[in-house]
Amino acid sequence: MRTPILKVGDVTKTFGGLVALDKVRLDIQERLITMLIGPNGSGKTTLINVVTGFYKPDNGRVFFRGIDITGKPPHEVYRLGLVRTFQIPLPFQRLTVLENLLAAYRGNPGESILKAPLKMAWREAEEEAVDKAFEIMEHLKLTHLWNSRAYALSGGQMKLLEIGRALMSGATMIMMDEPIAGINPALAHEIFEHMQNLRDKIGVTFLVIEHRLEIALKYTDYVYALANGKLVAEGRPEAVMADSRVIESYLGEAM
Amino acid sequence: MVLDQLYAITPLVTTLLTFYSVYLILALSLNLIYGYCGVPNFGHVFFQSVGAYVAGNLTANVMNFMFLGGGNICEIATAEARRNLALANPAIAMGFFILSLAVGILVGGFFGYIASYPALRLKEDYLAITLIFIGEIGRIIARNEASIACGLVGLTGIPNPFIWVGDPNLSLIIYTIMAVIIAAIIFVYLQRLSNSPFGRLLKSVRDDEIAAASLGKDIAKARGWAMILGSSIAAVAGVLKVFYAQGVFADDYIPLTTFVVLSMVILGGMANNRGVILGALLITLLDFLVAPSFFRLIGVEIQFDITYIKYIITGIVIITVLLFRPQGIIPEKPVETIGLKIARQNIKREKNET
Lengths: 255, 354
Ligand SMILES: Nc1ncnc2c1ncn2[C@@H]1O[C@H](COP(=O)(O)OP(=O)(O)OP(=O)(O)O)[C@@H](O)[C@H]1O
Ligand SMILES: [Mg+2]
Hints:
The structure holds 2 protein chains of 2 kinds.
Chain A: E1 6-15, E2 18-28, E3 33-37, H1 44-51, E4 59-64, E5 67-68, H2 74-79, E6 82-84, H3 97-104, H4 119-139, H5 155-168, E7 173-177, H6 185-202, E8 205-209, H7 213-216, E9 222-227, E10 230-235, H8 237-242, H9 244-251
Chain B: H1 2-36, H2 44-67, H3 76-88, H4 90-119, H5 124-144, H6 146-149, E1 155-156, H7 168-194, H8 197-207, H9 209-214, H10 219-245, E2 247-248, H11 255-268, H12 273-289, H13 292-297, H14 307-324, H15 338-353
Antiparallel strand pairs in B: 1-2
């Protein structure tokens, strides 16, 4: 087996008495779209928070490209090429759609306080960033809103902007927390097609949390299923969906 | 005749313009910290006072020590001696101003760095309160510890760097022109700085620090820089004020000053330097026109303390703005980089094609 791009080794995370993650282990392979499924409260978002440095795990370690990133602050995780989106979008409210995307661009020298006043030092990066931002807006059908402030967007548009920033970041691996929740089916399919495109053309790895499996599974290479903070199944989508423990976890106490 | 009258009101005009420059510098630097980066630095006056104490203390002590054979800086006699020294020595007079400016910037930035420590750990309201108190503690110490700026009495004899030109009004005019130029330079610098990816970085940290961190922004560093830079610029305002007033008085640096400056920023438009120019102008004029000295000048006799009217008007203006135009007279604009220009062209081209 190839070495995974992201390795989560027996991670445990508790909130008081609540065990949100219980010795969870993942091996995410490069250049695949991996789905993380599980009922509400099963620990999916918590897992992303632990991996990207927003929470510190109680136990266990996280490796990205062989580097131990356990407990590294989020901005350092980003710098290694791992970026996440938020289940509830967190746009920069008073910035425009274009500015939101530009802010996510990787390595703009103009963000340095010394170089900022010298336009020459960042002009080129800024131009490239704008071109890339318009490409992304085109894909996400946001172009007509390029100059609108983020607070004026609809819920679905904010979701799209959230995805757009992740795509803008030039990350090698993107973790998306329910990217298509609240987005119309046609566009949802297009978003997944775009992910496939990025996977095939530039080799981006995706880990996607989704509840809308009827859309998402079609584009999925591999699935991990969580229930009550525990990993209950993994494998090809068809196999995992047929797994009795997964079905049980969704139907839950009703059975 | 006319010339005589002009000559008579010269100090009034130079005071208005110098104070406008000082307020503008304060408002622009607070705008960087609060408007752009979202740190509610309600202790901003403290950083101005740091510049003021540096200017006064450094100038008085070093002048006394190097040229006047020591002596207590608070004594009237040494204050007089410092004035005479500057009268006779242009190089010394101007040299101490430049030195104060340089050291003031450094020390102001240092205190800004220290103050950014709570700025990373406290929530907005707690932070605002903490910073007000940091500033007040500074003032209370200076008020009671004579070695800083002669306590309640104040430190005098900090000579105008152009005192040697002879005519007092002329030295005021030259000083004022310089103050306006310094304010203009700071404006241009901050305009460039904020209309760059760095300005966007500060705004992203302001709008959502969690999202900013997830997109690689080092929140501590961004806030730290905003505080360091904003505080060192505020210190410049302190130095300018001291050499104009030719003295330092701890009680000039009360929290009210911060709120006057804050009202300039809110009125003009947060995160908009052009708006701040306007906001600072309006509030400075209000400050100037609704004052006993102005009414005396136009020969109107008033029987009560008009200062309170000024506070009432300022309050009404702020509340009205917050109610009806919370974004200020000139609202925040997108960061104006080359990127925005390209974007506009892209959009125009597309429209033409379809
Ligand atoms: N910061 C927190 N403090 C306390 N409890 C938390 C915190 N974050 C998550 N939890 C708890 O951990 C459990 C897992 O939550 P998590 O958000 O990871 O679920 P999820 O799988 O993403 O669910 P959903 O599909 O509804 O988004 C829940 O019981 C939740 O209440
Ligand atoms: Mg979740």
